[in-house]
C-alpha cells in the first residue's frame, strides 16, 4: 500500500483551560484513505524541575478521522496555565487490524488558558455550600511586620501600595500574577466578634472601617476557592471601586456578586446605616484593587502569636480535595 504523507503546518487555536482545537495539512491523496489520527500530547518539562524525577508518560490519543479542525477536550486531564507540546500522525487501519502510519509531524507548543467565568461560577457554587452563616463585622484589617508600615509611611506617601497577586490558590485563577491589589482580612472570632489576635503575617495590624473599602460604589467579585491540605477553606474576593482599572479587569474575568445578597461578604442598609457581614466557615482573603491611605485607619501591635502555618503566600491548592475542586484542570 502507498505510504502516507507526513502531516505538516500544525495549527492550534481556540485554546481554553481544558481544551484546544487542532488542524494540519496533508496530501489530497491521503484525505480519502486516512481512518485514524494519533495525537501525542506532552506537558513541557519545567526548566527548574528535578531532572531525576520521573517524567510524565507521553500520552497518545487515537481518534477516528474527522474533518479538520478537530476539538480535543476531555481526552486528557489538561491543566490550566500549563505549557504543552503536541505532534500528530495519520493512519490507515488495515483489514488485519494493523495500522499503516505516516511519519510524525513537527512538534508545536502552546499554553492552556485560565479558568473562564463558567469555571469560576462552579467554584463559587462549591464555596457557597460550605460558607456557613453570616457574622457581623466592622473593620477590614491587614497584618504585617512593623517595617512594612514604616516603609509605607516614609517612602510611599503614607499609602499602602498595590502589588501583584502571587500564585496561591487554584492554578487556573485569572487573578494570579495579573491583578494588582492590597490584601485584607475581615474574619472575626465567633465569641468576641473582633478580629483574632493571632496572625501568620506579622505582629502589626492596620484596621480600617469597613465602609471605607466596601460600599455601594464598590463592585464585589468572586475570584477563587481553595484549601492547602487542611480542613479549612479559603475564598478570595475582590473589592474594586466602580470604573477603576481593577474593576475593568475583573468585569471580563470574574463572577460579579450582589453586595447586599451573597453567601460570602455583604454590605446592606439597615435602619439607615451600612451593615457588614462575612461568612463564618470560610477564611476570606479580600483584594482591594486601589492603594489605601493609612490615615483612614489605625495601626497597632497585636498580642497573639505569629502562626506561620496559616500563611497562604504562594500556597498550592490541594488537587485531591473534593470540596474545592471542579472537573476541569486544577
TrEMBL record:
Residues 6-115 form the Fibronectin type-III domain. The keyword Glycoprotein applies. SUPFAM superfamilies: Fibronectin type III. The keyword Cytoplasm does not apply. GO terms for cellular component: cytoplasm. CDD domains: FN3. Transmembrane segments: none annotated. PROSITE patterns: FN3. InterPro entries: FN3_dom, FN3_sf, Ig-like_fold, PHYHIP/PHYHIPL, PHYIP/PHIPL_C. Keywords: Glycoprotein. Its interaction with PHYH suggests a role in the development of the central system. Interacts with PHYH and ADGRB1. Belongs to the PHYHIP family. This is Phytanoyl-CoA hydroxylase-interacting protein. It comes from Pipistrellus kuhlii.
Amino acid at each position: 500500500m502507498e505510504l502516507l504523507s507526513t502531516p505538516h503546518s500544525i495549527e492550534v487555536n481556540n485554546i481554553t483551560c481544558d481544551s484546544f482545537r487542532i488542524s494540519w495539512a496533508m496530501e489530497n491523496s491521503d484525505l480519502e484513505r486516512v481512518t485514524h489520527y494519533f495525537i501525542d500530547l506532552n506537558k513541557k518539562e519545567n526548566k527548574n524541575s528535578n531532572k531525576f524525577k520521573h517524567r510524565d508518560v507521553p500520552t497518545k490519543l487515537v481518534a477516528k478521522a474527522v474533518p479538520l479542525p478537530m476539538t480535543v477536550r476531555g481526552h486528557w486531564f489538561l491543566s490550566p496555565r500549563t505549557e504543552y507540546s503536541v505532534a500528530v500522525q495519520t493512519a490507515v487501519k488495515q483489514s488485519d487490524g494493523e495500522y499503516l502510519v505516516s511519519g510524525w509531524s513537527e512538534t508545536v507548543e502552546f499554553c492552556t488558558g485560565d479558568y473562564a467565568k463558567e469555571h469560576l461560577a462552579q467554584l463559587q457554587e462549591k464555596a457557597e455550600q460550605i460558607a456557613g452563616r453570616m457574622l457581623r463585622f466592622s473593620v477590614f484589617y491587614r497584618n504585617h511586620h512593623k517595617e512594612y508600615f514604616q516603609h509605607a509611611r516614609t517612602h510611599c506617601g503614607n499609602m499602602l501600595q498595590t502589588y501583584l497577586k502571587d500564585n496561591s490558590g487554584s492554578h487556573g485563577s485569572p487573578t494570579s500574577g495579573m491583578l494588582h491589589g492590597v490584601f485584607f482580612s475581615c474574619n472575626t472570632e465567633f465569641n468576641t466578634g473582633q478580629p483574632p489576635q493571632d496572625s501568620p503575617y506579622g505582629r502589626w495590624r492596620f484596621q480600617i472601617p469597613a465602609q471605607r473599602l466596601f460600599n455601594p460604589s464598590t463592585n464585589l467579585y468572586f475570584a477563587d476557592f481553595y484549601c492547602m491540605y487542611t480542613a479549612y477553606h479559603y475564598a478570595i474576593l475582590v473589592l474594586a471601586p466602580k470604573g477603576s482599572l481593577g474593576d475593568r479587569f475583573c468585569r471580563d474575568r470574574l463572577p460579579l456578586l450582589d453586595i447586599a445578597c451573597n453567601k460570602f461578604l455583604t454590605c446592606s442598609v439597615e435602619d439607615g446605616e451600612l451593615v457588614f457581614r462575612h461568612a463564618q466557615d470560610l477564611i476570606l482573603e479580600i483584594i482591594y484593587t486601589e492603594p489605601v491611605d493609612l490615615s483612614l485607619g489605625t495601626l497597632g501591635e497585636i498580642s497573639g502569636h505569629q502562626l506561620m502555618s496559616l500563611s497562604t503566600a504562594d500556597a498550592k491548592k490541594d488537587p485531591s480535595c473534593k470540596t474545592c475542586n471542579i472537573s476541569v484542570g486544577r
